[in-house]
Structures are given as C-alpha cells and as structure tokens.
Amino acid sequence: GFIRVDRDYVAQAAELARAGGCKHFVLQSSRGANHHSRFLYLRVKGEVENLVQAVGFDHCTILRPAVLLCKRQESRPMEWIARQFLSVVAWVFPTAYSVPVETVARAMVAAVLQPGKGKVEVLENGAIHELGKA
C-alpha cells in the first residue's frame, strides 16, 4: 500500500496535472531520497522524484524536508518520541534535523510564486527553512 500511495498515486497525479496544463509541479519528498537506497521509504521517495521529473513539466520543485514536526491524529509512539527530542534539538539547531509542516507549506507556495532557475530545483531542509520564511 505504501508504494501505491507514495509513488504510484503521486506519479499518476503528476501525469494528470501535466495533461491538464500544469507547468510547475511541487513535490514533497524526503531528506535522503534515493532510488538506489536499501531503505524502502527513501527508495520509494527517490523513485517518485524520478517519475515526476520524467513527466516533463516546465519547472519542477522537489522539497526534501527532514523530520516533519506536526501533531498527528493517529498514534505513532516512536514518532512522537522522536518529535519530542527533535523539538528540543530545534531550539539549538533549528534547520538541522526537523522542520515544522507550516514552514514546508509556506516554502511550497513561495516556490510557485518565485520559481528558481532551471528545470528542476531540489530544496533540502535548510533551503526549505529559508524559503518558508519568505
């Protein structure tokens, strides 16, 4: 199910968007995304990045955030513990290991309003923080 949702559905949505005239696609991926990764999550994120780029948008922005800081409705105890720890770390190193979801959302909007140069732009966690302040 994870592969179908995080790779296949996203790639299909990109194709439909392009067919509908979309010229700039913004994809939220993950830090460490790599289609050669031995870790399923990072491999799938890398695969969907490649698939979206292959669709042929005039411009494609890929955001690779670190751990997303957000409140979830479902119970994920280990993720909750990680978020608590990273919230404290974020006080000292605000852009190193995490990013609030609101910052990612603002960066996505800013990427559309102020597209970067080149056909594909990949924004890592630090750049997401900077763009999310705009």
What is the fold's blueprint, element by element?
Blueprint: H1 2-19, E1 24-28, H2 40-54, E2 59-64, E3 67-69, H3 77-92, E4 98-100, H4 101-113, E5 120-124, H5 125-133
Parallel strand pairs: 1-2, 2-5, 3-4
Helix pairs in contact: 1-2, 4-5
Q: Report on the biggest sheet.
A: 3 strands, parallel
**Beginning-to-end CA distance, first to last residue:** 36 Å
Whole-number total of structural domains: 1
State the CATH class: Alpha Beta
| Low-pLDDT sequence parts | none
> Per DSSP, what share of the residues sits in E-state strands of 2 or more residues?
15-25%
Q: Rg, please? A: 15 Å
CATH architecture: 3-Layer(aba) Sandwich
Overall SS class: alpha/beta
Per the CATH scheme, the topology name is Rossmann fold
Counted beta strands: 5
* Main sheet strand line-up: 1-2-5
| Number of helical stretches of at least 4 residues | 5
Q: Provide mean pLDDT, rounded.
A: 90
